[in-house]
Design a protein that fits this description.
Blueprint lengths: L8 E2 L12 E3 L7 E2 L12 E3 L7 E2 L12 E3 L7 E2 L12 E3 L22 E3 L19 E3 L40 E3 L2 E3 L18 E3 L7 E2 L12 E3 L7 E2 L14
Parallel strand pairs: 1-3, 2-4, 4-6, 5-7, 6-8, 8-9, 9-10, 12-13, 13-15, 14-16
Antiparallel strand pairs: 11-12
């Protein structure tokens, strides 16, 4: 049980060798990224709770190495994007909850290979725009919201997943150029996250980002290699935050950076 701490990153070696671990509780932290193969040795893991964190995207094979996973809870994050391979290989998965995120659409093959006995999914208050349920098990039923509870997901229509007042936005792609961290604004290489009450550095940015505005937030630390995947960055503004810790390699790889 690691809930209620200040964990921000799940590193590849954090749970190495814990082959008998069955339950991992990581709620109420500041986790914004999970490194590739971070769960590699957790072959007995049945329940993983990552709710109430700062995840913005769930990348491909994020949970690779945990084939016995039955319950995956991702509620109350800032997720805008799920890669179609995020849960690939989780053939025992029965419960997936994504309540209170910023998801507008799910990949067409998101649930390919899910268990035949059915799976309980919850998308309450996710702003989900559409879902293709053709590959879900025939007895997969909605758990929430209330008006959809108990209904067969395969029988629902696109309109059933639309929230009132939702505007049509182009779907985002995990790791793609169009991925703008919620609730920031992105245009012409500038990612504007000023005064958005952020507590962590965004884990995903558009590929063409050259300027990152993070001033007037509540960011407390700059983690290792926080911007390593964004070598085009020329300017980063972190003024007026609550930063007390900066990793020694926080800005490594930023050869184009001219203003910090």
């Amino acid at each position: 049980d690691l809930q209620g701490n200040n964990i921000s990153v799940i590193y590849e070696s954090d749970f190495q060798g814990l082959a008998k671990l069955r339950i991992l509780q990581l709620t109420d932290n500041h986790i914004y990224t999970i490194e590739k193969d971070a769960l590699h040795d957790l072959i007995s893991l049945e329940r993983l709770d990552l709710s109430h964190n700062a995840l913005t995207a769930v990348p491909k094979r994020a949970f690779k190495g945990a084939p016995a996973l039955r319950s995956l809870q991702l509620d109350n994050n800032q997720i805008t994007c799920l890669d179609e391979g995020a849960v690939k290989g989780l053939t025992e998965l029965e419960i997936l909850t994504l309540n209170n995120n910023n998801i507008t659409t799910l990949p067409r093959d998101m649930f390919a290979g899910m268990p035949r006995h059915g799976m309980r999914c919850a998308f309450r208050r996710t702003r989900l725009r559409a879902i293709n349920a053709s590959r879900l098990a025939p007895y997969t039923r909605c758990h929430s919201p209330g008006q959809l509870k108990g209904q067969n997901v395969a029988d629902l229509h696109e309109q059933d997943f639309k929230c009132s007042g939702l505007t049509e936005n182009a779907p985002m792609e995990c790791g793609g150029r169009s991925l703008c961290p919620h609730p920031c604004r992105c245009a012409d290489g500038i990612v504007d996250c000023r005064e958005k009450s952020l507590t962590t550095v965004p884990s995903t940015l558009p590929e063409d980002t050259t300027e990152l505005r993070l001033e007037q937030n509540y960011i407390t630390e700059i983690p290792p290699k926080a911007f390593a995947n964004h070598r085009r960055l020329k300017r980063i503004d972190l003024s007026n935050n609550n930063i007390s810790r900066v990793a020694y390699d926080a800005f490594s790889g930023l050869k184009s950076l001219t203003s910090l």
